[in-house]
Amino acid sequence: MSEQKQQILNYFQSFLSEHKQRLFEEIIRQRTRHITVVLEDLFHPHNASAVLRNCDCFGIQDVHVIENNHRFVDSRDISKGSHKWLDIYRHNENDNNTLPCLDSLKKEGYTIAAMCPNQNDILLDELPVNNKTALVFGAEKFGISEKTKKAADVFVRIPMRGFTESYNVSVSVALSLAYLSQKIRDEKVNWQLTPEEMQRIKLSWTLRTIQSARSIVKRYLVENKKSAKLFDFSEFLV
Description:
Strand order of the largest sheet: 3-2-1-6-4-7-5
Number of domains: 2
Number of helices: 9
Order of helices and strands: HHEHEHEHEEEHEHHH
Radius of gyration: 19 Å
CATH superfamily of the largest domain: SPOUT methyltransferase, trefoil knot domain
CATH topology of the largest domain: Alpha/beta knot
Structural class: alpha/beta
CATH architecture of the largest domain: 3-Layer(aba) Sandwich
Number of strands: 7
Strand content: 5-15%
Shape: elongated
């Protein structure tokens, strides 16, 4: 971990209360990128917001949003500010963004797990967690696309005991993350963030929390041109 980067983080965290600093330190140690969530074309703000809230609650840091036919919109009353603590990646630059998103995750070493019933599916508790895994959830009415089905490495089914054909997408996310987030800990998988990742995320949380963050960052950039190059502050200067 860079000592200079830590000095930058310490500077901005000095604007936080000691309680908030301790809370960030406690929560960052429970965060993971070993599991990530991919949402394909969700269009109900209620569901989108509930999913973000679930991801934060279960310690998932990254959420990938595929926007092919629908723009991803969350209801802040439901998400309760959880978007502030997550890294949300929007894939919306192409006519169809599914394959670019999934291909990029595969290049990062993720197994693509399509969360839907299939002829060759496995149950949730049979899904291995030794490799990094991207859980792909489809739209409320149509489920995952054919492109996702072709790109998937494995199909995963959540057990059901009733007549209804499927769970609500936010419920599916919650059930999956509740089980898998515990499984990676029980099986002693290397699920935690690296020190460098913790550093960057804590800086992000800090700057999203302190008042007048943009003006503080601008002043810091003027006064510390060399050290400022160690972090990308652009997202806070929009």
